[in-house]
Amino acid sequence: MTEPLAEHCYHCGLAVPAGVNYSQMIGDKLRAMCCPGCAAVAATIVGSGLGSFYKFRSAPNVLVNETSLEQYLDWDIPEIQNEFISENGQGQQSIRLFIDNISCAACTWLIEKHLGKLTGMESVNVNGTTMRAEVIWNPEQLRLSEILNAIHQIGYIASPINDSSDIPEIKDQTRQLLLRLGVAGLAMMQAGMVAIALYAGSFQGMQQEWQTLLRLVSLLFVTPVVFYSAQPFFSNAWRSLKMRHLIMDVPVSLAISLAYIASLYATFQGAFNASAGNASGEVYFDSISMFTFFLLLGRFAEQRIRHKNLLSLNRGNRLPPVTTQVFPPEHYSFEQSEKSARGEQSARSEISARSEISARSEISAYGAVIVPIKTLMKGDFIRVDSGQTIPCDGIVESGDTQVSEALLTGESNPLTKQPGDLVYAGTINGANPLVIEVSATGAETKLSTILKLAERAAMHKPRWASLADRVAAWFVGALLIIASSVAWYWYLHDPDRALWITLSVLVVTCPCALSLATPTALSVASSVLRREGFLINRSYVLELLPTIGRIIFDKTGTLTEGNLTLLHIEPAGESSSGNGSINTQQILGWAATLEQGSQHPIARALQQTVAGHIEQQQVVTGCGVSGLIDGDRFALGNPKWVAEIAGIELSDSREKDPLLTKGIEIGLARNGQWIARLYFGDQLRESADPAVTELRKRGLSVSLLSGDPSPAAAEIIQPLALCDYQFSLQPEQKLQTVQQLQAQGQSVLMVGDGINDVPVLQAANISVAMGQASELSQINADVILLCNDLRALPRAIAVAAKTRRIIKQNISWAIGYNLIALPLAASGYVPPWAAAIGMSASSLIVLVNALRISRGLRN
Amino acid sequence: MESLYLLIPISLVFILIAIRVFFWAVNSGQYDDLDSEAERILFDEEDDLSNLE
Secondary structure of A589-601 in the HEC alphabet? Predict the structure, then answer.
């Protein structure tokens, strides 16, 4: 007996779609799997004896597609791998890989164990913080493609990465700050211990000799704190003063250095006057070390989040494809007599030169040579297989296929491309292999023109000064003025006490709490949002979010899934006899079986329901597919074509739903009888409607700017409560619309995914790219919505509003505390121990308040 | 109270040792991965799938 299957995938935690039946034995139970990808990964993990991973992991894994070694073979080509690989003396090669989807510590364990089992593997070292792996292997026994594929087999995507400049810098910065923090922490504990003795002494009385000794000891502890740990504050303050600009580090440095000098003076004055017994002045060694430690702790938390975002932003090199198949002219000339004759002379010599460079490049079937894309030239003939990204602009030479231009233009339905049609770099060939004559590469492609537009847009992006910076400049100025007037007043009235009172003013008002107020709140909020799948790349996002008045969505791939899905099945009417017993499950099974093995977008929409075996499969491009299943003859495709080959009449669709009739309509016939019509189209994301409703509820305007010219576009967004929408927009028009809104004083947040959205993302006050968006839009976006769940957007706005509230509370607390403490200190009523307690307590309150952001958001 | 003249230098020596060890640990990369190293000790070597929820 099998256990009743749970409805969530054991591997990735997603819901298992109805009618899907994958499972894997893990431990003593059969576990449900949502897709062949997860099932294959789970099988590999259990099969290689690493099943206890499922016991160790603390977060579900991320779903990946099934893999094949072919997908990584390009990485074995020397020109491509060379810039990533380094050799050591013993003939071993090493590479750094970015590993996507590492979610917990057990992932690093699993990857190290699994790779360690490959023959020829020397060492694997996975770092969960940086999401990078250092791999060393023996190239005689193991190839790079096999390593990348092995990582994919256990559910992670690895891509070679070349961040030689970033990583050591980040590592150095982290180590530096950690060392400074450690020194400050140790010194703080020691100085604190000594301070207890000193405070006790000042209450109960203490001999001058012992007081001086204890002060000297704490001086010894605190000196490295001032000269080593606090050094970044001094250099920042100095840099900002040189730029005639006041930042928080200025009063921080001032307080630390003045307190240190004054305590030094008090200590030695006490030592020399010990015999006289009239030592004056106080020491602030414990306050200095505690103050420095708290501030460094805040900086450390802030830096860790900044580095983590930086590291996950640089996701390695996986722009596919890195190679393409070029036809040497002599192989292609028989089909292409006229055109190749024109450029044959030059083209031939170039291609033979390139073949020599790539000594190991393989000759594929069809006589094409595999070369890296960067060597491609105008006039070359290249072959693009189905499912591949087209690497350049060009004219279709032969082939008949459907190309998805969704990323480039926002058009949701695949376009038919036949000889003579133009195709563009960055679009994806859907159905059949194509031969293309290259007309533009690199900087001349349509893709690059859009990117240049983006660069110009970025220059006009509104600037934002953070609240903390504005408050800081004002606060610092006021503080310096007050401190100097206090010093001046006491100098006139009681010169002996002037220094000590001024110092207590500086220590009491020390902007520790104020300088922690913003960074702590922002750090907590960023890490809360990262867990929600809302990855913030630019620091100003959180402060800017609550000021946003208008949210603009792109359609294809943002509000919608961005690929074809089955929307509806309409079984043929009961009037046709004998069809009454057919259910949708059977229809789906047949349709999927007919499309088996095809790369067509419709086949991909159906692939999860394959249930049978097809014979005599015949695919007619642009029309459909026919074949025998269990002896019955089926035809699936364009209803006109199906009617023709099945010899039946074309019946009208009974569906009156405009949304369906404007999508793609497919007919299914069995043995000369209609069975069903299937409707395909792009589908709204499940999260789109609740997200838009929630945003409207918050009083925001929500608009749609789509590049999609197809009539279905307007229908599909009908259920959403949008304020306004525009279709068929060029990237320039989208940009203009946003810039007009900004000129009217509106703050705009743009959510997009495609390359056509890059310029408008650059112009928006805040830009959000979807997690599955093109790499280009992700690099240019302020935020990446890793979870692809649009509901994260209103949640982020809520968190940002809460963060803003907390920052304001923190700042008003810090300022309020200073307003009370300052007059007391200025009039000379604050002893050093009270100053120290006040300072630490106000910092702690600020820290604890910042932690409140993460509370109450989990539901 | 004279014992302080002995005890304080001893504590100083210990602090110096602690700081040296800390510097060595950080510079040899032991703190480079603050996320996964802490849990590594919990992962068994042999594959044991009992008590899997």
Answer: HHHHHHCCCCCCH
- Pairs across A and B, CB distance < 8 A: 91
Tokens standing for residue A856: 């109450």
Which residue on chain B is closest to A168 by alpha carbon? B32
Smallest Cα distance from B26 to chain A, Å: 6
Kindly report, residue by residue over A264-294, the tens digit of the pLDDT. Answer: 888 888 777 655 444 456 788 888 888 888 8
User: Is it the case that residue A751 has pLDDT exceeding 60?
Assistant: yes
Among residues A33, A42, A37, the alpha carbon closest in space to that of A66 is found at A37
Residue A339 has pLDDT above 50, yes or no: no
Please state the rounded mean pLDDT for residues A513-537. Answer: 79
Structural contact between residues A550 and A700, judged by C-beta atoms closer than 8 angstroms: yes
Four-way CATH pick for A323-444: 1.10.1790.10, 3.40.50.300, 2.70.150.10, 3.90.740.10 = 2.70.150.10
ipTM of the complex: 0.88
Nearest C-alpha in A relative to B50: A27
Is A533-560+685-801 CATH 2.40.50.100?
A: no
> What is the pLDDT, as a whole number, of residue A225?
94
Question: B33 and A129: CB-CB below 8 Å?
Answer: yes
Nearest CA in chain B to A133: B33
Quote the strand ranges of A640-797, DSSP E. Answer: 664-670, 673-684, 701-705, 724-726, 748-752, 766-770, 783-785
In the predicted structure, residue A781 carries a pLDDT above the cut 50: yes
Q: Read off the pLDDT band of A608 (50, 70, 90).
A: low
SS (H, E, C) A633-663: EEEEECHHHHHHHHCCCCCCCCCCCHHHHCC
